[in-house]
Design a protein that fits this description.
Number of domains: 1
CATH architecture: 2-Layer Sandwich
Order of helices and strands: EHEHEHE
Strand order of the largest sheet: 2-3-1-4
CATH topology: Alpha-Beta Plaits
Structural class: alpha+beta
Shape: globular
Strand content: 25-35%
Number of strands: 4
Largest sheet: 4 strands, antiparallel
Mean pLDDT: 86
Length: about 110
């Protein structure tokens, strides 16, 4: 049987104008990688900046619990009050867990 380790999958859906800022937050927090895709959908019906600038973005990163909790705190403090941003956290199992820890080039907070 293949040994797996439990880590967190953090998914963030946000206005496209936040893409670069959110990627920087992921890197600063220690995420070693991420995936970004353009998405379309409907939510609470609020007008967002991206209504005029394009689709929303979905950022996904697989990280340790500590990194995920730090990112959620950052999103809650800096982005939720003023931007259309949602986040979800799931427990996932991975092989090669060393790939999902802090990035060697990430600054320590």
């Amino acid at each position: 049987m293949i040994k797996t380790v439990k880590v967190k999958l953090l998914t963030v859906i946000a206005e496209a104008v936040l893409r670069d800022r959110l990627v920087a937050e992921l890197r600063t927090a220690g995420a070693s990688g991420y995936t970004v895709t353009e998405v379309h959908g409907s939510g609470f019906g609020t007008v967002r900046a991206s209504e005029w600038s394009g689709p929303s973005v979905r950022l996904e990163t697989v990280v340790t619990t500590e990194i995920a909790e730090g990112l959620l705190a950052t999103l809650t403090e800096r982005y939720f009050p003023s931007w259309s941003v949602v986040a979800s956290l799931q427990e996932v199992e991975v092989v090669r867990p060393e790939r999902y820890g802090p990035s060697p080039s990430a600054p320590r907070r």
